[in-house]
Specification:
CATH topology: Glycosyltransferase
CATH architecture: Alpha/alpha barrel
Number of helices: 21
Bound molecules: 1-deoxymannojirimycin
CATH class: Mainly Alpha
Low-confidence stretches: 1-21, 41-60
Distance between the termini: 51 Å
Strand order of the largest sheet: 3-4-5
Number of strands: 21
């Protein structure tokens, strides 16, 4: 039994993989110790058949009456009693010795395991350093980064850049002064935005998770706002705790927090950001415990209790949410050496891949986490519910420098479906605008494009400009014809979104805009007339400016800067507020400064007036919240 037990002894798997020789040595020592103990105990056992103290035959059989009690007056019985007691004593000593050895072997195995984990972490750090050499070089740049370069060669551009930096500083200071540690700011009231405001319900309601602080880290760093960056970083590292009884959106925590923390790590080289990201990611993992691995939308950070959005079809997760995890989760696995995150995101992508695709290869906006192979809804969109799923297919392929060929293949199929499945439409009025409208039950729901879908101009331009190629089903991404077509789709969609800005009274675009014979790129419904400080249009200006170098994107971006300053800035607090009607010359303001305004809108504007090599697209991929993540070099 003991020998069998010894053979069964196993070190933890990490030790097995990392230091097989040490494991072998440890197991051998244990086996030899146990064997010698067994041999020393063996004679005692022969005197104790059945495991109980039993005396030699002459005692039990003395009168031929079967076993009887030993007689302590008989000399032979006394000797046997003493011998039995002595044997018990030796057995007790041997057992105690055995227990001590086992305990010290267990402690040794524990120490080996810790060592193995430490060397595994050191190894993954080395691997990451090898994979991201360019990043570590650029991290050596101290902010504000290059203030020179071909694209910054005139004083006007430099002053525009300074103006955007001042806006970022102002928005940040207002948040820091009035809502420090809260998720978002009420720029009019000068207070934290509570439950019910903006995205608060996706960020834990009243929980103090500091979404705006995390979302601002890299923007502040990139704009050279060193003092502000240090305050945000110190708060993040020393005061922020994810151990909160808060139900949050897995997607929002991923794109804003994981993205922001990982990006901060690459800018500073400070491993504590990775530790913070790991702590958060492990709190999101319970959401992935579904039959298909498709994460549920919401999770409680403390208890791990997961749920679907109350407004989603029963048992379903949202395509854009479950499908926008790959960039951050894979990178986290690379940095920590723990595959659990990459595997979780990949399983989610595979589950989405099982969904029936209704419109020539488009994906349904909702997927059932128990039965992903059943079609949950006949709905597809490049705006809300669908958007960043398509974005991540392209970007994970770019981030992995062409290594994730599955991502490339999926993107190629999806891009063809976007082009030909009915989402992409042309207006019938005189403008002949190209736009994207959601599909429901096989038809466009209405001829209405959401602001959220305005990122697609930049996406198509990025795809056209992609350098790594992947062969998928015989088609090459780098076919010149495909590139030209994608670039022109990107240019046209961006023109459409800019038109929606231009046709408003304030030069800022509405939340959604419609097209028919008489109306083009204008919001009709009251709820569509708001301007939410969203980034998607300037995000497309950013990509197109970088790719084409066409001055008009800088001009359009500057119009946006001026409009934001004029209509959105709240003088009393310095914050920026959403507008509730962009067709009014004196638009009413709404009391919210969303965190993505600092993470994306202002960052893209700042980069448009920076040199194109600053955070160049060859070295960085921006996640869907605008956080730059490095392109893997090997
Ligand atoms: C951001 O949080 C992200 O860009 C997301 O992908 C969608 N929308 C908001 C901003 O509009």
């Amino acid at each position: 039994q003991n020998l069998a037990g010894c053979a069964k002894m196993r070190l933890p798997s990490a030790s097995r993989q990392a230091i097989p020789l040490s494991r072998l040595a440890l197991v051998t020592v244990l086996c030899i110790s146990l064997l010698s103990l067994i041999l020393s105990i063996a004679p005692l056992h022969s005197q104790h058949p059945g495991g109980r103290l039993h005396f030699p035959g002459q005692i039990s059989d003395r009168h031929g009456l079967g076993p009887i009690e030993p007689d302590p007056h008989l000399l032979s019985d006394r000797a046997a009693i003493f011998a039995g007691a002595e044997a018990d004593h030796r057995l007790a000593l041997a057992t105690a010795r055995l227990r001590r050895r086992l305990m010290s072997a267990a402690a040794e195995a524990g120490a080996l395991r810790v060592n193995a984990q430490t060397s595994q972490a050191a190894f993954s750090r080395l691997l990451a350093a090898a994979r991201y050499p360019a990043v570590f070089r650029s991290a050596a740049l101290s902010p504000p980064g290059p203030d020179t370069g071909a694209d910054l060669n005139n004083a006007t551009v430099r002053s525009m850049r300074r103006r955007v930096r001042a806006m970022l500083r102002s928005a940040w200071r207002a948040y820091w002064r009035y809502a420090r540690g809260a998720n978002e700011l009420r720029p009019i009231g000068g207070a934290p935005a509570g439950p019910g405001a903006g995205d608060a319900d996706l960020l834990g309601g009243a929980a103090r998770l500091g979404a705006s602080a995390i979302d601002s880290l890299d923007s502040l760093w990139m704009a050279g706002l060193t003092e502000e960056f240090s305050a945000a970083a110190e708060w993040t590292l020393n005061e922020l705790s994810f151990d909160q009884d808060a139900t949050v959106s897995v997607f929002e925590m991923n794109i804003r927090f994981l993205g922001g923390l990982l990006s901060a790590y690459f800018l500073t080289g400070d491993r504590r950001f990775v530790a913070k990201a790991t702590g958060l990611a492990s709190r999101l993992l319970p959401a992935f415990a579904t039959p298909s691995g498709l994460p549920r939308s919401l999770v409680n950070l403390r208890t791990g209790a997961a749920a679907d959005h109350p407004w989603a079809p029963f048992g379903c997760s949202v395509l854009a949410e479950a499908g926008s995890l790959q960039l951050e989760f894979s990178l986290l696995s690379e940095l920590t050496g723990d595959r659990v995150y990459a595997d979780a995101a990949r399983r989610a992508r595979h589950a989405i891949g099982m969904a029936p695709r209704p419109y020539g290869g488009l994906y349904p906006n909702f997927v059932h986490s128990g039965r992903p192979d059943k079609l949950a809804v006949q709905e597809a969109s490049l705006g809300s519910l669908g958007d960043s799923f398509y974005e991540y297919l392209l970007k994970e392929w770019l981030r992995t420098n062409g290594t994730d060929t599955e991502s490339c293949r999926l993107f190629l199929d999806a891009a063809r479906a976007i082009e030909h499945g009915g989402l992409l439409r042309r207006s019938t009025g005189s403008g002949k605008f190209l736009y994207l409208a959601p599909l429901k039950d096989g038809r466009p729901v209405d001829n209405r494009m959401e602001h959220l879908a305005c990122f697609a101009g930049g996406l198509f331009a990025l795809a056209a400009n992609a350098t790594p190629s992947c062969a998928a089903g015989g088609r090459q991404l780098d076919s010149e014809r495909t590139r030209r077509r994608w670039l022109s789709i990107g240019v046209e969609l961006t023109r459409t979104c800019r038109e929606a800005y231009r046709r408003s009274a304030v030069g800022l675009g509405p939340e959604a805009f419609e097209f028919d014979n008489n109306v083009e790129a204008v919001a009709i419904r009251p709820e569509d007339k708001t301007h939410m400080l969203r980034p998607e249009t300037v995000e497309s200006y950013f990509h197109l400016w970088r790719i084409t170098g066409d001055q008009r994107y800088r001009d359009w971006a500057w119009e946006t800067v001026e409009a934001l300053e004029r209509y959105s800035r709240i003088v009393s607090t310095g914050g920026f507020a959403i507008l509730s009607d962009v067709y009014s010359a004196r638009p009413p303001v709404g009391d919210l400064q969303p965190s993505y305004f600092l993470a994306e809108t202002l960052k893209y504007l700042y980069l448009i007036f920076s040199d194109r090599d600053y955070f160049s697209s060859a070295q960085w991929v921006f996640n869907t919240e605008g956080h730059p993540l490095p392109v893997r070099q090997t």
